[in-house]
Amino acid sequence: MATLFDKLWGMHRVADAGDGYDLLAVDRLLLHERTGGVALKSLEEQDLPVVHAARCFTFMDHIVSFRAGRARNEARSPGGETFILETRRLSADAGIRIIDTDSPDQGIVHVAGPELGIVLPGFTVMCPDSHTCSLGALGALAWGIGSSEAEHILATGTIRARKPRQMRIRVTGELRAGVTAKDLALFLIARHGAQGGNRCAIEFCGSAVDALSMEGRLTLCNMAVEFAAYTALIAPDERTLDFVRGRQLSPAGEGLLEAESHWRTLSTDAGAVFDTEITLDAGTVTPQVSWGTSPEETIALDACVPEGSNVRALSYMGLDSGQRLEGLTIQGAFIGSCTNGRLSDLKMAADQLRGKKIAAGVRGVCVPGSQGVKREAEKLALDQIFIEAGFEWGEPGCAMCFYAGGETFPSGARVLSSTNRNFEGRQGPGVRTHLSNPAVVAASAVAGYITMPQPAQPLGETA
Amino acid sequence: MAEPLVTHSGLAGALMIDNVDTDQIIPSREMRTVSREGLADGLFAGWRYESPGSRTLRADFVLNRHPPASILISGHNFGCGSSREHAVWALAEFGIRVIIAKSFGEIFHGNCYRNGVLPVTLPAEDVDRLASSCDGQVIDVDVRAQTVSARALPGWTGAFAIGAYSKRLISEGLDPIRLTLKEAGAIAGFLERDRIDRPWVYN
């Protein structure tokens, strides 16, 4: 009786590394310019070669400009181009494929990686980025690492790891209309705390998870790191296989059939035991909005900030205990990121914006998660809806999910954001970030204050 | 390679906030070059300086004391958030050798051992006690004995857990890459078998 996590771990175990550690083979190493360059540079300084460059990929996403019509080396923060230039040179020298700023494949690593078929079910995928857990949505063993660990993978093709404890989160029932994977993730974190995942590898399952689109699953797994999970995982099903089929780097022909028959075996045995189990009724989840400076400081959109809340967070956010979030005036709205920068996210936001204008005094920015998402959105003329509503329509990248210097929302601005972190200063010094799903961001941008979205129209997707 | 740490005695500073994330430890705007160095100046920049971009020290911030602390005491989930190893590099360069907290962010925790910074998890009540009794006082940490003691708390000793591998990383300054390269035979054998079992991984 083994869990899916056990099976994937066993399948990649090269050797006992001693002291309770295993040496695991790494199928894909993904790098980005912000933390990947430093790993390559350190390796170069030690004169150590990259052993499996063909299974490594460099993405340009973190620091690239999101300005429409950006130049090839244009960064979104002063001096940021050095990360683009150095990482490009180091990757090229190592023979690593670069999904560069001007590539039609460019995008946020966790958005573009699955789109390109770089990440496939059953793979071990490592990336010096904490949101690598997103990729568990495909049934991959994926987690974020430090730059030193990335260096170790580059030099050896393996990672030293100690098997974490395991948790199963079963989400029963179904999500109500207008409630998304983002709300489910925020609800879970609010209920069990930012440490609720307790460094466990989490397998999400249950009817509400089965019903999620792949994009919704990526969103749910993305937020696992905000739950202090080691990583998250969803067993691949036919929806996963449909998603993977026909991608640029997915296997084809005979190879695909062989891979698919393997992928269909990837599931947790009935009777396998987890260290912890949580069950959640999806029907109890409503649209969520964070009020504080940790993702756990989240409440239902129509609820009041709890009495006795963390004073430091209240002060930073300019709020009082007992205050309602609904109706709070906002100055900013951001839609994008590895959490909610995919096509279904843009569609649900566009549903709220169609034929409307955002309120005076609100700066709205939408940055598709990848060139692929951007192209698809433009085919559907979603860009026109955003632009006519008064949103900026940016070039793909992490954009305003995190501040890296340069221009941003002003200090004290209240911003509704479809991203993953509401930390102090995350979107700029003094900026007050409220996390929510993209429909809430869009509807609130139109209203000029935090408000419940209109019921979804036929084009919208609930996940 | 980081300087090995076997025992450490140093001044403690208490930063009793839960969920101190790596964006606070080293704000992204302070990461200016593709390098592990030059980060100490940006350590806790948002909290340590009067205003963003300024370098005027805030008198009330724990790391602005003289002489500076080398042991940081904090709450739950220290180092959560971004995987940026720059957070540990900045702490190490500033001179922090030990962090005593109620719990740690997972990736940050792993990054610490590789960079000569010891993460010590103690029960919440012990951490609170250390914070109230030993802020600005000397704390002694012994990696081999896995203990923490404090001169301000005579008779008290806190025991902490540390894996054998992590212990070697921090106390011997082990080089994991060279250690793993000794397994070249096992790795090659694995890859040979795996290419047959899962050819699509290697195409």
What does this structure look like?
The complex is a heterodimer of chains A (463) and B (203). Chain A is α/β, with parallel strands linked by helices and 463 residues long. Chain A is built from 16 helices and 19 strands. In chain A, β9, α6 and β10 form a beta-alpha-beta unit. In chain A, α2 packs across α5, α6 runs parallel beside α8 and α13 crosses α15. Chain B is globular and about 60 Å long. Helices cover 32% and strands 16% of the residues of chain B. Chain B has eight helices and seven strands. Chains A and B meet through β1, β2, α2, α3 and α5 of A and α4, α6, α7 and α8 of B.
| Low-confidence sequence ranges of chain A | none
Rg over alpha carbons of chain A: 21 Å
- Give the CA-CA distance, first to last residue of chain B: 36 Å
Number of strands of chain B: 7
What is the rounded distance between the termini of chain A? 32 Å
SSE layout and pairing:
The complex is a heterodimer of chains A (463) and B (203).
Chain A: H1 4-11, E1 13-18, E2 21-25, E3 28-32, H2 36-45, E4 56-59, H3 81-94, E5 97-99, H4 109-115, E6 124-127, E7 141-144, H5 147-156, E8 158-161, E9 166-172, H6 181-192, E10 201-205, H7 207-210, H8 214-222, E11 231-233, H9 238-244, H10 253-263, E12 276-281, E13 288-290, E14 298-300, H11 311-317, E15 332-336, H12 337-340, H13 343-353, E16 363-367, H14 371-379, H15 382-389, E17 391-393, E18 414-417, E19 432-435, H16 438-447
Parallel strand pairs in A: 3-4, 3-6, 4-5, 6-7, 9-10, 9-12, 10-11, 15-16, 15-18, 16-17, 18-19
Antiparallel strand pairs in A: 1-2, 2-8, 13-14
Helix pairs in contact in A: 2-3, 2-5, 6-8, 13-15, 13-16
Chain B: E1 7-15, H1 22-25, H2 45-48, E2 71-74, H3 86-94, E3 98-101, H4 106-113, E4 118-121, H5 124-134, E5 138-142, E6 147-150, E7 157-159, H6 164-172, H7 176-181, H8 184-197
Parallel strand pairs in B: 1-2, 2-3, 3-4
Antiparallel strand pairs in B: 1-5, 5-6, 6-7
